[in-house]
From TrEMBL:
CDD domains: FliM. Keywords: Bacterial flagellum, Cell membrane, Cell projection, Chemotaxis, Cilium, Flagellar rotation, Flagellum, Membrane. This is Flagellar motor switch protein FliM. Residues 254-322 form the Flagellar motor switch protein FliN-like C-terminal domain. It comes from the Bacteria. Gene3D superfamilies: CheC-like (3.40.1550.10), SpoA-like (2.30.330.10). One of its GO terms (biological process) is positive chemotaxis. It comes from Virgibacillus dokdonensis. The gene is fliM.
Length: 332
């Protein structure tokens, strides 16, 4: 419940009105106790929480950055795209807000059901077309007289940009965007019922000297299977898991690149200092190692494996028989 905080001037004015008799304190108290009635429009039923709308906004902020980079490289001119607003409205209201003749692209997002609509202001669409054909990016509107070549070039441009939609949504769901239709008249575009709630993401777009809006309409049916993922809790949980996985992979890669000393022990023996001082040429030291028993292989001076000696490609080598089960069952 949001409480309105009055300024000092408003408090003084209220006290003055009560003191002068212009306002009755008992009447104000009575009004406050009466039940408040708020008008609710069922045609504008809100099916997404503020938290979910914020998540959709974050996704499309990333999408706007990806589109900016893509179109800047593709058109070789100044491009700036940013999120202007994210609202939920009835589909009928979205269609009414779209110009009678404009550029409309529909995409399927397998495995999600339904389709989304991207409406591109003709000023933006024709500036893109002019740059694609080698022009300065001049904006002109001839949406009613598009040639087949112009239609094909526009379709290809927005079809290639669909990969950026896949990247933007990758943190929530793996989708395969496919451009299914190119239309100029919104009256021929009836995807869902008029009262169906849709999320409309509006993108401020500037290409060269031209500017306009790109509107993305996402029906509720598309988002319904992933609504639980559109929450701050899910984002934080996923982000934490992603950071842990990345840290684990990095540590694993670094450990795998570390070098260690590996040496097989042919045998050991114990002698006194007096015997050591009297050692001479041709003296023999007997090792406490039977020729029938396996040798111990040490890794950084720690016994790890039981091995047998031999040769491999004319070089001395050992073959691992088993892990060392000395004083520690784990071989540590």
């Amino acid at each position: 419940m949001v409480e309105e905080v009055l300024s000092q001037n408003e408090i003084d004015a209220l006290l003055s009105a009560i003191s002068s008799g212009e306002m009755d304190a008992d009447e104000l108290k009575k009004e406050d106790q009466e039940k408040k009635v708020r008008v609710y429009d069922f045609k504008r039923a809100l099916r997404f929480s503020k938290d979910q709308i914020r998540s959709i906004s974050r996704i499309h902020e990333n999408y706007a950055r990806l589109l900016t980079t893509f179109f800047s490289a593709k058109l070789r001119t100044y491009v700036n795209i940013s999120v202007a607003s994210v609202d939920q409205i009835p589909y009928e209201e979205f269609i009414r807000s779209v110009p009678k003749m404009t550029i409309l692209n529909t995409y399927s997002l397998k495995p999600l059901e339904g389709r989304i609509v991207m409406e591109i202001n003709p000023n933006i669409a024709y500036a893109m077309l002019d740059r694609t054909l080698g022009g300065q990016g001049v904006s002109f509107n001839k949406v009613e007289n598009l040639t087949e070549i112009e239609t094909l070039l526009m379709s290809q441009l927005f079809e290639k940009a669909s990969t950026k939609l896949q990247e933007a949504w990758a943190s929530i769901v793996d989708i395969d965007p496919v451009m299914e239709d190119f239309e100029v008249n919104p009256q021929f575009l009836q995807m869902v019922s008029p009262n169906e709630t849709v999320v409309v993401v509006s993108l401020n777009t500037a290409i060269g000297e031209a500017s306009g809006m790109i509107n993305i309409c996402i029906p509720h049916i598309v988002l319904e299977p992933i609504i639980s993922k559109l929450s701050v809790h899910y984002w934080m949980q996923t982000a934490g898991k992603k950071r842990n996985d990345e840290a684990y992979e990095k540590i694993t890669r670094n450990i795998q690149q570390a070098t260690v000393e590996v040496k097989p022990i042919l045998g050991e023996s114990t002698i006194t200092i007096e015997q050591f001082l009297k050692l001479g040429k041709k003296d023999i030291i007997r090792l406490d190692q039977s020729i029938e028993s396996p040798l111990i292989l040490e890794v950084n001076d720690e016994p790890k494996f039981l091995v047998q000696p031999g040769t491999y490609k004319n070089r001395m080598s050992v073959q691992i028989l088993d892990t060392f089960k000395g004083g520690n069952e784990d071989g540590e």
